[in-house]
Amino acid sequence: MPRDPRSLAELLADARVWRLKDATAATSRPAWPTGRAALDARLPDGGWPTAALVEVLLAGHGLGEVQLFLPALLAGGAEREAGGGRWLIWIAPPYEPYAPALAQQGLDLRRFLVVRPASGVEALWAAEQALQSGACTAVFLWLKGSDLRWLRRLKLAAEEGGALGVLFRPEHHRFESSPANLRLAVSRDAAGLRLELLKVRGGQPASIALEP
């Protein structure tokens, strides 16, 4: 994945990155499909909420958590094309994204940006700026921890900018309070991926087993 030699602050302040000509934030849009009928049936709008913060609590990395959002990312790609070039941002992913595989899945790498912050606070700041910019369809953020104040800021930023914000955190945070619109815990067993919907705005908590 190509890296930009400029500092994070310089990159996020670059008008060519964030300020789209004649672009406005999406204040409302239909939910994005999950690609899983069992999961769509449990979500109030039939898919991932947009202009919202989704918190994904992980028993470990590499469980297939990114693939859960692939249909939404592809839908966002069509929106980015129609919207004149909106961005998909990954902030502090635990592994280096493999660009050929992402392109093979159908993602447009021309509008895909990976940000490697120097600290957790810098990662949160970058996510807030990206979410509220109105220039992004989706922002993924990986963190080991955060406080409630920052989570509220991320939620408000997603609503303001009309972006899907996805926060990946370790599973042990499940017992903490969170303002996220949707919270789910992801684990994997011999049968496949297991999702626990811990908090569903407008819906009910549930446990869902997804076959490979």
Describe the secondary structure blueprint for this structure:
Elements: H1 8-13, H2 15-18, H3 37-40, E1 52-58, H4 70-82, E2 87-91, H5 99-105, E3 112-115, H6 120-132, E4 136-142, H7 148-161, E5 164-170, E6 182-189, E7 192-200, E8 206-210
Question: Care to describe what's here?
Answer:
With 212 residues, the chain is of the alpha/beta class. The chain has a domain at 51-185: Rossmann fold. Helices cover 29% and strands 25% of the residues. The protein has 7 helices and 8 strands. The protein has helices at residues 8-13, 15-18, 37-40, 70-82, 99-105, 120-132, 148-161; strands at 52-58, 87-91, 112-115, 136-142, 164-170, 182-189, 192-200, 206-210. It has an 8-stranded mixed sheet, sandwiched between helices. The radius of gyration is 16 Å and the shape is globular. The model is unreliable at 1-5 and 15-27 (pLDDT under 50).
- The radius of gyration computed from the alpha-carbon positions, rounded to a whole number of angstroms, is 16 Å
SSE order in H/E notation?
HHHEHEHEHEHEEEE
Strand order of the largest sheet: 3-2-4-5-1-6-7-8
Largest sheet: 8 strands, mixed
Range of helix content:
25-40%
Return the structural class: alpha/beta
Name given to the CATH architecture of the domain at 51-185? 3-Layer(aba) Sandwich
